[in-house]
Amino acid sequence: METGGSSESSVEPKKGKSKTRRKPKESVLKQKSPAEFFAENKNIAGFDNPGKCLYTTVRELVENALDSAESISELPVVEITIEEIERSEFNSMIGLVDRERVDEALYDDYESAKAREKRLAKEARNQEIQAKNALLGKKTKEPTPVKGIKGRGEASFYRVTCKDNGKGMPHDDIPNMFGRVLSGTKYGLKQTRGKFGLGAKMALIWSKMSTGLPIEISSSMKAQNYISFCRLDIDIHRNIPHIHLHEKQENKERWHGAKIQVVIEGNWTTYRAKILHYMRQMAVITPYAQLLFKFISDASDKNMTIKFARRTDSMPPVPLETKHHPSSVDLLLIKRLIAETSKQNLLQFLQHEFVNIGKSYAERLIGEMGPDFSPKMAVKSLTDQQIVRIHQLFRQAKFDDPSGKCLSPAGEYNLRLGIIKELHPDLVSTYSGSAQVFEGHPFIVEAGVSIGGKDVKLGINIFRFANRIPLLFEQGADVVTRTAIKRINWSSYKISQWQDKIGVFVSVVSTKIPFKGTGKEYIGDDISEIASAVKSAIQQCCTQLKTKIVKKIQAREQQERKRRLSWYIPSYSGAIYDGLKEMAELHGSKKRRYEGEDAELLSKVSTRLITKDTFRQKLAQHVEQVDYEMALEYATQSGVSEEPREDIFIQPLEAKYNFIGCMSPNIGFRLIS
């Protein structure tokens, strides 16, 4: 009984505890706006950390500026400025007054007495090691500074400004274009740099999250005599713009384009190289654009201005919007096209809403769908089951591949010019492939391969572009990297993968780039059509380079042969002359008689009409003549039809002395009297 009593007492509830169990709260249905979703998942749009945020902001603004200028066939002029803002200036911008610290230990950068003692001891040990090494004459690296305080890295605040000479924006559309996520003008099926309507909006969202400051937009269109100025931020929870100021200003300079200014938190130190690398690659793929990059800081040694000058006026054609290919659509897209079409019957719908379906082929498709379908039936009356049947037939039927006329590649000329302008290589070759198809979407692959150049590392240097956008991150998994490193036998093209400076440039343009991952930073290696096209384009470039390299090797060998022959001319001429002199003495003493040309030659030697210098001059002339003929043959094979120009002097017929300069395509004439 005692045991039972003790067990009862052991399970008695403690005082102050409720005996009733808590009921779970009822879940409440909530929804998020697109702006709120991307604010919470900003890494999807490339805003992972302060440094990446600064890089992505620059990238999005530059690409929007280029798109705007190219849309009206205007040669782009883009100015991008990053201005570092001091903490005191930033505090005054947000209306925050600096206060003196009352409790130092409360702050993140506080250093305790123990930590300070430890830091000073480590610094003393480093100085002692440096002094000993100096006495022994050893070279040592400078010790890394000891961190004495705990901080949050080097993130600071920057004012990013981008100005272009593009199309500009309508006055009334500016708030929604910048203050409403997933709104834009690039949702049609065509080749575009951006597509989701996120770029500048994400910069605005990051500005609101990191600084709370609004974005400022100035814009003017060609037909306008005023400048639209708008200062706004975004209501993240409702996904609508919050307008601070929206007005029209006088446009005295008749400027057209857009100027966007945003203040964000960033990290220039860690992402400086990436931003400059991006600007340089953008200059490679768009040599028809003038890009000006500035970084401004109170520290004068950090300031920089880099101008990427325009090298051509030849621009790629403006990409055209196209219609969907039947093999690339899904059920939802078919339903949306039916809801939006202006065509009345099924036959017209198939003809006008899809590419590669003519009238006769549309009639054949309708006949194959079954008795429930007819060419004259109203397209709006199609049931869900009938739409499924259309989709099924689209997936099974055979259609011609779409043409690449809607695409706008950079072009071989621009790609080659961009490579030469920025890298200054010793050799370069380019190739532009024909349009191919992936899942109903046309794509074109352009490639360039260079040897040597400025600021190019030994080995293979990969430069990737998608819809004329440089791709800098996640290079290892990209189809271009894997193809260049694993599938190209460089040695078969007389190129050393480890000793030469090899630049591999590949640009893919399409109505749909099959990016992997949410960051849109690389194209996967699992798409056989694209992988095959990339490999073929690089091989075509290597074949062109092999011809040039072989000719260069032959020219080098010929030059070396000429140098060796010239080196031995004195010895050869002396040996030949001594032999002939000995033969001449035998001929003169009648110990051995020679006749004809031989006797004439020996008599000239004996009378010193022919000397050792004569042989030296003749051998030198022969070597020069052989070198000239080899150079002429090399020039002819290289496509140079022009022979070396010579001066020809012609006696004038007139008594009056005049000097006339005349130059023909092949020979230079000078008339002198």
From TrEMBL:
Cited Pfam families: HATPase_c_3 (PF13589), Topo-VIb_trans (PF09239)
Compositional bias segments (type: Polar residues): 1-10
EC number: 5.6.2.2
Described function: Component of the DNA topoisomerase VI involved in chromatin organization and progression of endoreduplication cycles. Relaxes both positive and negative superturns and exhibits a strong decatenase activity. The B subunit binds ATP.
GO molecular function, one term: DNA binding
Protein's name according to its UniProt entry: DNA topoisomerase 6 subunit B
Cell compartments where the protein resides: Nucleus
Record family assignment: Belongs to the TOP6B family.
Protein residues bound to ATP: 64, 164, 185-186, 194-201, 520
Region described as Disordered: 1-33
PANTHER family reported in the protein's UniProt record: DNA TOPOISOMERASE 6 SUBUNIT B (PTHR48444:SF1)
Keyword ATP-binding on entry: yes
Subunit record text: Homodimer. Heterotetramer of two TOP6A and two TOP6B subunits.
Catalytic class of the enzyme: isomerase
Species per Swiss-Prot/TrEMBL record: Punica granatum (Pomegranate)
InterPro entries tied to this protein: HATPase_C_sf (IPR036890), Ribosomal_Su5_D2-typ_SF (IPR020568), Ribosomal_uS13-like_H2TH (IPR010979), Ribsml_uS5_D2-typ_fold_subgr (IPR014721), TopoVI_B (IPR005734), TopoVI_B_transducer (IPR015320)
Catalytic activity: ATP-dependent breakage, passage and rejoining of double-stranded DNA
